[in-house]
Amino acid sequence: MNTFTESEERQALRAAVADLGRRYGGEWFQRKARGGEKTTELWTEAGKLGYLGVNVPEEYGGGGGTIGDLAAVCEELSAAGCGLLLMVVSPAICATIITRFGTDEQKQAWLPRFADGSLRMAFAITEPDAGSNAHKLTTTARRDGDDWVLNGRKVFISGVDEAAAVLVVGRTEDARTGRLKPALFIVPTDAPGFEYQPIEMDIVSPDKQFMLFLDDVRLPADALVGSQDAALMQLFAGLNPERIMAASFAVGMGRYALDRAVAYAGDRSVWSTPIGAHQGIAHPLAVAKIELELAKLMTQKAAALYDSGDDAGAGESANMAKYAAAEASIKAVDAAVQAHGGNGLTAEYGMGALVAASRVNRIAPVSREMILNFVAQNTLGLPKSY
Ligand SMILES: Cc1cc2nc3c(=O)[nH]c(=O)nc-3n(C[C@H](O)[C@H](O)[C@H](O)COP(=O)(O)OP(=O)(O)OC[C@H]3O[C@@H](n4cnc5c(N)ncnc54)[C@H](O)[C@@H]3O)c2cc1C
């Protein structure tokens, strides 16, 4: 059996999503972003077509597919120049965690809206003073009768202005040991005591990042996702899909830049042949192609492992895929900018905007260095420095 080629169904899904992406495209996307507008039409259409809910179980109106399917959707939109950043958090992390660990009531309440894309849920783990060190999270939830009362700060949270709710990673006190342990809460964005402020970023994107302020946010008992004791497992279950999606987003971005560069280099002549005939231009584009294909293959492996139920195996591959995809996308964008010459930095060609966008891939949702730490310690068994 050929296990290196995606199923016909997956290929058909990719082709259909690519068609949708082409109807919107990179120029439309960047125009919206530069104008301070949102790309809601694309999100809504993709949702209606079922693409944003491909991984939600059929009984809740979803496609009953896998993270591999969702990652294919994410990659194809990104490859068309109109990647939807919130796909990385809303259907991938939030819907996955609620599907796997939510109570029946939580599933009934939220999953049908993930299935048709009518809901966007942001995800908030990063804190100003904790950064990459999740052990230092200080957002805490205390019990007050049946309610929970949440206090804390979060930073760089994407899409809060478009989200109905945020899945917040907080900590609760263990009743037995008194130690703090993680817990996940669904916090509606209109909850009293919940406020957010945009962070001015040098990125051309319709999706913004926010600081969150949670001051005595009172939540009902059922705001806690699943069980208080299983939160760490729940968190890891959501982070693998996040990394797989981030990798797909990055591979798509690299493909978009490469396609544009190839078209430009095949067309533009300043000597007797198109510039694409010069190896100084052609070879970096060929390298980008090879490295994007390698990153994509690793992403497909991570998704296949995750979808087979192997969370541990998926963890290593998802980290490696995220690393490879980020590096490949940065290199592809750099080669694309260079191939465009001066046009590589004009707003008209839109390649310069991808420089900052592709650099995000190396930082979020987990930085290059933290992935290298993971591989050094877990895969290679080297000692820890921190
Ligand atoms: C565009 C964008 C969108 C984002 N969206 C979200 C979101 O929706 N939700 C959310 O929760 N977060 C989000 N983030 C936050 C993102 O996940 C963090 O920025 C990222 O995890 C790094 O954390 P930090 O910025 O605090 O960097 P720091 O932890 O302060 O790290 C700074 C630098 O030091 C390095 N470093 C830190 N520790 C070590 C170590 N032990 N060994 C070697 N190097 C180390 C890091 O790799 C990094 O290069 C987003 C960030 C960006 C830029």
UniProtKB/TrEMBL annotation:
Gene3D superfamilies: Acyl-CoA dehydrogenase/oxidase, N-terminal domain, Butyryl-CoA Dehydrogenase, subunit A, domain 2, Butyryl-CoA Dehydrogenase, subunit A, domain 3. Transmembrane segments: none annotated. Residues 122-201 form the Acyl-CoA oxidase/dehydrogenase middle domain. InterPro entries: Acyl-CoA_dehydrogenase, Acyl-CoA_Oxase/DH_mid-dom, Acyl-CoA_Oxase/DH_mid-dom_sf, AcylCo_DH-like_C, AcylCo_DH/oxidase_C, AcylCoA_DH/ox_N, AcylCoA_DH/ox_N_sf, AcylCoA_DH/oxidase_NM_dom_sf. Residues 238-378 form the Acyl-CoA dehydrogenase/oxidase C-terminal domain. Its cofactor is FAD. SUPFAM superfamilies: Acyl-CoA dehydrogenase C-terminal domain-like (SSF47203), Acyl-CoA dehydrogenase NM domain-like (SSF56645). The keyword Oxidoreductase applies. Keywords: FAD, Flavoprotein, Oxidoreductase. The keyword Oxidoreductase applies. Residues 7-117 form the Acyl-CoA dehydrogenase/oxidase N-terminal domain. It comes from the Bacteria. Belongs to the acyl-CoA dehydrogenase family. This is Acyl-CoA dehydrogenase. It comes from Actinophytocola gossypii.
